[in-house]
User: Fold TIGR00266 family protein from Tessaracoccus lacteus.
Amino acid sequence: MDVSITSGPAFAMGTITIPPGGALRVEAGAMAMTRGDIGMETSTRGGFMSGLKRSLGGESFFVNDFHSGTGGQVGVAAALPGDMVEVTLDGRQALMVQSGSWIASDTTIQVDSKWGGGRGFFSGAGLILLRCTGVGEVLLASYGAIHGFSLAPGETMTIDTGHIVAFDETVRYSVRKAGNWKSTILGGEGLVTDFVGPGRVWLQTRSTNDLISFIREVNPQRSS
Assistant:
């Protein structure tokens, strides 16, 4: 996947060049433009259950496969203002992705979901994380800028749950309260995630939970 990311980190757009005979898989609704010889096919990709699993993980039930006979470009953009990052998968490990962060990938990448138990409720996303496997490139989007970190074996890192974008499956994680009940209620911190290496972790500089809370404060909804 040949990706050019522009206008980041605030309003990133990914322009992906598809070679003659090539193809690209994109989250439904993420296409911003096409250029050249580009065709599109919409499907659940993998059948009803695969589409259902993706939808449980916060993505669309459907995906769009773009293909080109002579070559062209597809531009993709996320729903919220923020950054993009291209992640390479070599087939040896899976990439766990926060709900809503997967935006495009090579067609050789399988995008599925994984039941995370009580540990997987990042940003109110329920108990499902998207699991990307295979050999190829994955394009991730964030709310705010993206920062990537590489954890050595046994190295730890704690991140607010609302700021997680993705992490390698080799990284162990657990979700807990930020402190005692007093700091949780009065300190403005709720749940945090402890990561233990080895592996890569990506975070976003803004939280969608904080955005939703702000909107509710300035525009409270009244029930009749």
In short: The domain at 2-218 is CATH 3.60.160.10 (Double-stranded beta-helix). Residues 54-59, 117-127 have pLDDT under 50 and may be disordered.
